[in-house]
Here is the input.
Amino acid sequence: MSQSDVPAGPEPEYERVVSGYETFHDPSPFQCEWGGVLPELTLAWESWGELSPQKDNVVLLHTGLSASSHAHSQARNPHPGWWEEFIGPGRPIDTDAYHVICTNLLGGCYGSTGPSSTHPVSGVPYATDFPIITVGDMVRAQLLLLDSLGIDRLHASVGASLGGMQSLMLGAIAPQRVGRIISISAAACSHPQSIAMRFVQRQAVMADPDWREGHYYGESFPHRGLRVAREMGTITYRSGPEWMERFGRKRAKGEVPRLDEDFQVENYLAYQGDKFCLQYDPNSYLYISKAMDLFDMIETESDESISSSATLASIEAPTLIVGVKSDILFPVWQQRELAKLLGETHPRVVYSEIDSPYGHDAFLIELDAIGASVRTHLSLA
Here is the structure.
């Protein structure tokens, strides 16, 4: 299926990134929160804008589940990045003022250590021998990178979706190192509905016979399972109102009804699933989505949260929370809850709510509405 078969609409700029980034390597063992150990650690990262002599103008940008470090085009990779219109001279994240750093996630497959990386001892990919990781692990890996660059304090920590979780987590783990926090379309913890959605997506991958308990490297790829998982994920990323306007009940071919792709919306889901299979590692999908499930920054008396010390109460920086009314994956009540809980511990919380038809993906599309809030919060004195 080609993109020409799918009715036009705004789509994120994701690509399979294999070059054009810097790498940070730490040869010492990295202890993960749930007990696993990585013998060594590599993070892929890219940057834009000039670093000030005092190294005090850094904006650390955190990615969602499937994005790479390539948030914006640059000389070594001129392809548009996933936040291309948000970053640059005069843009909401103004590279005339800020030095922007974006990393690929720990556990990812775009240059950072993840399940597809070669284990330094065994010489074969980690696969499912990769340890369970958390959002806290991702952030602590980023702090190691910042240490190596001599950056003691960030101007801001910015992210959406899983990136919004990381932005909050960094502000809790290292409050003295963050000047401002922006969290878009995230939550104080993962709620049961989103956990259930991601569980079923992982089940689709693991039910594919080609998954082979995660040891499929060098063998046939679990394409069918990952395709279905991404199709399910795409349903949660966009919204019904957009799809009614974009697809309606139009049939794809206008022929006799079929059991496979028959309606245009089904064509769209199939296209998104097939495209993703050419870009992303299934095991990274499993591990990173599980890290999202484990995310919990609400302080409770339960000992189920391994990161109980990294709670919202630890955050000190002025914080912007942005919600989107049509979001299905992280419904807007979760951002309202987050803003309310943060407001109980310190008064410097700003909440902004966006009315957009694009659902969870609005943070990738709504430059004017979301960009204006981002610009304002970054410029706080």
In short: DSSP finds ten helices and twelve strands in the chain. Residues 196-289 form a domain with the Rna Polymerase Sigma Factor; Chain: A fold (CATH 1.10.1740.110).
